[in-house]
Amino acid sequence: MQAQRWAEAGPFARPRWFALLEEAGKQPLLACASDGAKQVCLPLEQQGAGLASLTNWYAFTWSPLFTGAAPDPALLHELARDLARRSRRVVLDKLSVEDGSAERLAEAFRRTGWIVLDEHCDVNHVLAVNGRSYARYLAERPGQLRTTLKRKGRKVEVTLSQAFDEQDWAAYEDIYADSWKPEEGDPALLRRFAIEEAAAGRMRFGLARAEGHPVAAQFWTVENGIAYIHKLAHRESARPLSPGTTLSAALFAQVIDGDKVTLVDFGTGDDPYKRDWMDEVRERRRLTCLRPGVPANWPELAKAAVRKLVSLALHR
């Protein structure tokens, strides 16, 4: 497939990302179709009695791999027909709405005989920079955030790096373990991803120290004019210093004024603190595609029909 397409697709829509998942223990099933230079591939995995998107909790989105400006509709239809011979159920998760991914895939499966249950699954907070400088952007942030930066910004020392450093990463892992965050999903995979992003020049890493001791860390990447905020954590004991806020501000300044990004992507989840930094919220959809002629699918289809009737009654 055309390598230049993958270079424009973002961190979670290129072959290397799915290869990392395989190296971490996933068992990919790649459903691919081609017509000359046109190619489409759905990275999937077996999940229970059906198939599902090949993904994990680090990924912001899931989408097909494809050549050209968009997946060829005829090839998507061909894949949907072929999958009907292999599985009674296909679940496609973390689908973007803004680029048409959710709509295209829903149409392909519906037109080939599947019943598609389309539902909200998550949200994605983003910032469109719109040519602003960091100073102008900061001036438009909530007053409480600006006051926090003014009062506490000098209480920690911030260092930014674009290279992977073993000691810095060990500090991040120690901070994460001492933070409010849940247990890390796959630290070995995240570390491998960070190493590769740094080697490609995409890594943006920040540490905040109080009296020389690391108290907050963040891992971002930048590519094709977009900054992705992957991980952030601070020690609970350092909360009064607001080290995460100070560190975020330094990284926003770096990507806006230094890297000249046009968009900052804060990933999935509706954490309240994201609203202080971001201006827009985008939806993520989940498609549950079911073969109507398979008895094993009937209970799920019946439940979906009841939910739809209840929803219609409530909105009358």
TrEMBL record:
* UniProt cross-references to SUPFAM superfamilies, sorted A to Z: Acyl-CoA N-acyltransferases (Nat)
Which Gene Ontology terms cover its molecular function? transferase activity
User: Which InterPro entries is this protein grouped with?
Assistant: Acyl_CoA_acyltransferase, BioF2-like_GNAT_dom
Q: Which UniProt keywords apply?
A: Transferase
Regions annotated as coiled coil: none
Residues annotated as domain BioF2-like acetyltransferase: 146-275
The protein's matches in Pfam families, at most eight in alphabetical order, are given as: Acetyltransf_6
Q: What is this protein called?
A: GNAT family N-acetyltransferase
